[in-house]
Amino acid sequence: MIDVRRVQSLEPYVADQIAAGEVVERPASIVKELIENSLDAGAGQIDVQIEGGGVDLVFVRDDGHGIVAEDLPLALQRHATSKIESAQDLNGVASLGFRGEALASVSSVARVKVTSCAVNSDAGAMLEVHGGNQLADGPAPHNVGTTVEVRDLFFNTPARRKFLKTDRAEMRQIDLTFKRLSLAHMDVGFSLAQAAGHAARARQLSLAAGSIEQRLEKVLSADFVSQSIQIDESSGAYRIFGWVGLPAHHRRQADQQFFYVNGRAIRDKVVGHAVRQAYQDVMFHGRHAVFVLFLELPAEAVDVNVHPTKHEVRFREARDVHDFIFGSLHRALRNLRPGQALASDEPQVIAGEGHATSWNQATNDQKPPQQASFGVGAAMVPVAPSTGGPPGGLAQLVNEIAPQWTSGEGGGEQSEGMPPLGYALAQLQGIYIVAQNAQGLVMVDMHAAHERIVYEGLKQELEQTGITRQPLLVPHLVSLSEADADILEDAHAQLMDAGVVIDRTGPGTIAIREVPALLKHKQIGQMLEEAVADIVAFGTTREIQRRQYDVLASIACHGSVRANRNMSINEMNALLRAMEQTENAGLCNHGRPTYVMRSMSELDALFYRGQ
Ligand code: ADP
Ligand code: MG
Fold it and tell me: 122: Cβ–Cβ under 8 A, 6 or more apart, which residues?
């Protein structure tokens, strides 16, 4: 016989430890919670100190509004918060915290001391709680603001302590958490000091309030600002702004991708997918883009109460959000054109340097930088989208474009008369065009550049003439789950726009009757499968279009000038002019650069001239 076990309430401290597991995964989670509390308290300066990878000590001090002495014990209790009052408030949470469980969770698995002095109180107070047990309290001196010290993480739950990584790995996580939060609050000053433990180096990072450019450079990289374009786009209630790295400024890891929704750093598959697609045509295979982007939308349009760590959100209209992000980034990226190099000593003014302006205001009245230099030493400038597709064949190219510049007017692209990519001097080894422009030397990979021009031309043609559909003689039958079939059926208008005509023939069968002409020999079933997966996850798909682009790309590759073909100066100049007018011309279809530029001063440096 099995004994019946009775139901009983857990001791509060056991419940706290269980709950703590969700909030406090590792030291970096504590850093996040404490900094968020400081931000919610309106701090202007937040100082963080770390010892032993955050296991020995996490110390966070702020100059925010503080905690009233009598409230201290409550602040460390679970489900006690000053940020929301009713379930109603959950629909439009404006603060970073609201669940009222961070301090309680942390103090159930570590030794916590909170010292605070509230605005308008005469004296500070402190409270110390070790593993859920209150040890000490009383008056304590403190400036207006709060200090939280967390020591000996998991001292009472050794099993969890074993799951921690090395100090060095924990430090890296803390560093990333700190940086991620700092980017979303440019108007707040931050400092992070990580003391050297065994085998760990001491590190110090301090970020002054209001200095946006400096912060981007310290958090991402020294050249991030010059290697990115600034965007700010709105549509209806949505706004996206921030910096997107130029496609050539890619990284091996996706570790510099900062995305915020209403000021909260999030990881989200809808967002990730939209961004990846925007870079799809221009990113080198297997590499990752770099960006800092802020999406703003009405608080009701997004649910932040999905997960205790609030890393995830849920969008009410995932498809709209996806399309908005994709559209904004795609436009920004495709409007890059080969342009003038940035004078390297010309500082780029981003905004409100040195002023503690609010981040939103600071970005509102900024225009995107006029110029942004390009990763391979060349430069790109954002321009208005061009109309009229570039021609396909090289001969046609010469005819249409050559007269503009052979007249000696330089085509009038530039006031000085010298077009951005200059004029061809010679062909090198049948592969490269050597040209000179106003800045110095330009070298172009003929095949890569021509391939991109033809590809973009074909894409534009497809967009302008619309997709030609081809009826299948025998409809292609696809069997799938009933739920997936429902989804596809609901998306039939969207599929029709993409050139696919479907029709439901049974609970779990769909007949494909027409497909885009370009794809008639391709594997339709697999394409549809991937489209369904997209539509289920993101409400939208670009899979069908992507596959057509793949076909166009291979047509472009075969139709482009091959290496070792002799080109006349006229032809080479025509190619340069076409590049200047082509979307994404700085990168070939596989994300490799099509040209590099070396300024005279860079060339002089090679020869130690003037030194
Ligand atoms: P939440 O942030 O979700 O409200 P926490 O457990 O993180 O929950 O904090 C509980 C409460 O303690 C907060 O609602 C706030 O009133 C107070 N508090 C915590 N940290 C600070 C701080 N640095 N400055 C001022 N008040 C704080
Ligand atoms: Mg909190």
Answer: none
- Tell me how far apart the alpha carbons of residues 26 and 162 are, in angstroms, rounded to a whole number: 11
End-to-end CA distance of the chain: 94
104 and 315 Cβ atoms separated by less than 8 Å: no
Q: What letter would DSSP give residue 352?
A: -
β-sheet with 595-599: strand ranges across: 423-428, 432-436, 440-445, 595-599
Ligand nearest to the CA of 39: 1
Q: E strand or H helix at 38, and its extent?
A: helix 27-40
Closest CA to 382 of 591, 592, 583: 583
**Positions of the chain with pLDDT under 70:** 90-93, 196-201, 308-310, 338-416
Neighbours of 94 (CB within 10 A): 12
Can you tell me the distance from the alpha carbon of 223 to that of 527, in angstroms, rounded to the nearest whole number? 40
Which residue has the CA at smallest separation from atom 8 of ligand 1? 100
pTM of the model: 0.74
Ligand (nearest to CA of 108)? 1
Structure token pair of residue 302:
């997004």
pLDDT of residue 401: 43
Spacing, Cα 264 to ligand 1 middle (Å): 17
A 10 A CB-CB count for 330 gives 19
Q: What does the alpha-carbon distance between residue 339 and residue 399 come to, in Å, rounded to a whole number?
A: 23
Residue 63 near residue 44 (C-beta atoms within 8 A) = yes
Which residues form the pocket of ligand 1, taking CB atoms under 6 Å from any ligand atom? 33, 37-38, 41, 62, 64-67, 75, 81-83, 97-104, 146
